[in-house]
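User: Predict the structure for this protein chain, please.
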Amino acid sequence: MRKIYSIMVVLTIIAGSIAFGFKAFDDHQSTQRISENKLSYKNQSIILNVTPSTSTNEKLVPEGYAIFKGQTEVVTLTYSIDVSELKNQNITLTAEALNIQIGDSDLYSNLVSITIVENHIEIDEDLEKITVEVRLIEPEDEEAFHAISGKNITFQLRIVARQ
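Assistant: Here is the predicted structure, written as structure tokens:
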């Protein structure tokens, strides 16, 4: 009986750690205008270094674990890109996430899901928005959990103007 009780306590602690252990990120959409890196000609690209920041102390947790106030399963980031010089030229913006890391390592980068909401945007405005959603995938084992718990997620967002 005592052994069963001990196992239940350990499982409860592990489940609680999964729910609370991930680094906090801002759940509110943040929009950044990239004027100093505006896209001015076809096949030009810019690379944004992204580290989602926190202002609300919400914690990014894997899908299905946002059960308490202050937890979120997705962080949404929106970037406004100045493409005024490319308007009416049949140019499309494409975006991709590169160099995904948790902490200073890419060992568990497969646990970060980055979705670019609309990956091929036909330019028809002076500013086009790129929306990125960041999610965590539940680690399969305790070793992976401890390796990523409390660490910052960083990545690069490459945006290219193509004809």
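The first helix runs from residue 2 to 20.
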